[in-house]
């Protein structure tokens, strides 16, 4: 019997749908408060002098450091001022000769090179002029952009880390398992993943396969913005999550995607709470947790959408008989993807040995094919 599902949502569309459904914070634009740099500055440690005097000796008047007021010196013919990187140029100087290109004798210096006007000088306003638009409103935040806001006197406070709840589901999850039971490995895995991705994590006890318990957890989520669950989203008698969400009036963003592992992946909004209902199989929970949580955190924090994909060649062929693209565990060896002999979406042993997940189109890929892959973090 074929299990092909033409209605499954392609991964990139699912990611886009999640991105569009989440609100980005208000992202202000930025204008330059003053010229950048605000005065001519030294870009090397050396002496500030008049270039037109060529290699002639100069008498050193003193030293300017980054932050020194340059007006205390005036560079007249036959003089120079020692200057450190970042210091404003003194009046009269138009070039810097670096320490390495100077002969020094007491307070006299002699350039060993022919200085030219503007040598090793960062010109006033060469990066921006006062009033220039530096970043339009809506530009996603990054550490570099936050630094630019700080430079212009508009320090943006760091946002508190988003709080992410993690709750596994399943009656089979117990701390001391008999042979028909298992330990909860998804909970600790997803907590670690959320922590790695920069969230503040609340790892909760596993929930039983009971609609009432799931409903209670969803209706009283506590102080979290995102809830990661694992399990209970497929076709089994105990797969209650989709029905519970429907009864609670949640907005289902998608349920079931064209990816192996990850077919029953579910995302829903319940008021302000984003629920990522990850499939229970550990590799599936990992892959989808990584893809969807990193995107959701970036969106809610006002960062650009992360692109986890890199490209490399497969060292060996990988078969994929299904109709879904496959993310296959690999080792990266000298820049090539060496497929591991994995046993599918329940095989945590192979996932833990992998450092890459390679994208294998439906139908499989031959050895030597270049394909996209993402790191296992
Ligand atoms: N008739 C069908 N059966 C299944 C389908 C389907 O389309 N039709 N899809 C399969 C796929 S694909 C996946 S993935 C799984 C996902 O099912 P659920 O998300 O409903 O997960 P569960 O059934 O609750 O559990 C699946 C598997 O994972 C183990 N598990 C669950 N939670 C944990 C945990 N916290 N730590 C470790 N392992 C966990 C669980 O014991 C099961 O073995 O469904 C397929 N079936
Ligand atoms: O999504 Mo499932 O993990 O393909 O077996």
Short key terms for the protein model shown above:
377 residues; alpha/beta; Molybdenum Cofactor Biosythetic Enzyme, Chain A; Molybdopterin biosynthesis moeA protein, domain 3; six-stranded mixed β-sheet; 7 helices; 19% helix; elongated; binds ligand LQZAQKY5; binds molybdate ion; molybdenum
Task: Describe what this molecule looks like in 3D.
The structure is a single chain. The two termini are 36 Å apart. α3 (186-196) packs parallel to α6 (282-301) and α4 (211-219) packs across α5. The protein has helices spanning 11-21, 143-151, 186-196, 211-219, 241-247, 282-301, 348-353; strands at 9-10, 30-31, 41-42, 46-49, 58-64, 79-83, 95-98, 102-105, 108-111, 121-122, 133-135, 163-168, 200-203, 226-230, 251-255, 257-258, 266-270, 273-278, 310-314, 326-333, 336-339, 356-360, 370-375. The chain folds into four domains: 9-25 and 159-301, Molybdenum Cofactor Biosythetic Enzyme, Chain A, CATH 3.40.980.10; 30-35 and 127-151, no CATH class; 41-122, Beta Complex (Molybdopterin biosynthesis moeA protein, domain 3); 310-375, Beta-clip (Beta Barrel). The chain contains seven helices and 23 strands. The protein is an alpha/beta fold. The protein has a six-stranded mixed sheet, with no helix packed on it. It has a six-stranded mixed sheet with strand order 13-12-14-18-17-15, with helices on both faces. Strands 19-21-20-22-23 form a five-stranded mixed beta barrel. A hairpin with a 2-residue loop joins β20 and β21. The structure holds ligand LQZAQKY5 and molybdate ion. The site of molybdate ion has 8 residues, from loops. Ligand LQZAQKY5 binds next to α3 and α6. It is an enzyme of class 2 (transferase).
């Amino acid at each position: 019997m074929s299990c092909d599902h033409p209605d499954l949502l392609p991964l990139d569309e699912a990611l886009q749908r999640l991105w569009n459904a989440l609100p980005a914070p208000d992202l202000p634009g930025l204008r330059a408060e003053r010229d950048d740099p605000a005065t001519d500055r030294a870009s090397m440690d050396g002496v500030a002098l008049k270039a037109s005097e060529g290699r002639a000796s100069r008498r050193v008047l003193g030293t300017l450091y980054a932050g020194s007021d340059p007006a205390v010196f005036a560079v007249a013919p036959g003089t120079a001022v020692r200057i450190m990187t970042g210091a404003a140029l003194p009046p009269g100087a138009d070039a810097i000769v670096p320490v390495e290109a100077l002969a020094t004798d007491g307070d006299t210096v002699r350039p060993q090179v022919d200085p030219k006007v503007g040598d090793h000088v960062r010109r006033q306003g060469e990066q921006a002029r006062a009033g220039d638009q530096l970043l339009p409103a809506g530009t996603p935040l990054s550490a570099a952009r936050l630094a630019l806001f700080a430079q212009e006197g508009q320090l943006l406070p760091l946002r508190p880390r988003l709080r992410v709840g993690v709750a596994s589901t399943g009656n089979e999850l117990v701390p001391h398992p008999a042979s028909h039971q298992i330990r909860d490995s998804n909970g600790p895995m997803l907590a670690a993943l959320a922590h790695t991705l920069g969230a503040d994590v609340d790892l909760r006890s596993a929930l039983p396969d009971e609609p009432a318990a799931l409903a209670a957890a969803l209706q009283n989520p506590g102080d979290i913005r995102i809830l990661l669950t694992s399990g209970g989203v497929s076709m089994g008698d105990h797969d209650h999550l989709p029905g519970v969400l429907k009864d609670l009036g949640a907005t289902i963003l998608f349920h079931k995607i064209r990816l192996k592992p990850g077919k029953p992946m579910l995302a829903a909004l319940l008021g302000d709470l984003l629920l990522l209902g990850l499939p229970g199989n550990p590799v599936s929970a990992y892959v989808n947790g990584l893809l969807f949580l990193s995107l959701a955190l970036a969106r809610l924090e006002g960062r650009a959408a992360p692109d986890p994909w890199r490209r490399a060649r497969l060292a060996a062929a990988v078969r994929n008989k299904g109709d879904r693209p496959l993310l296959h565990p690999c080792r990266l060896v000298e820049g090539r993807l060496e497929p591991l002999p994995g046993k599918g979406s329940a095989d945590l042993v192979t996932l833990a040995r992998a450092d890459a997940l390679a994208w294998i189109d439906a139908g499989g890929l031959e050895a030597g094919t270049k394909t996209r892959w993402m790191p296992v973090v």
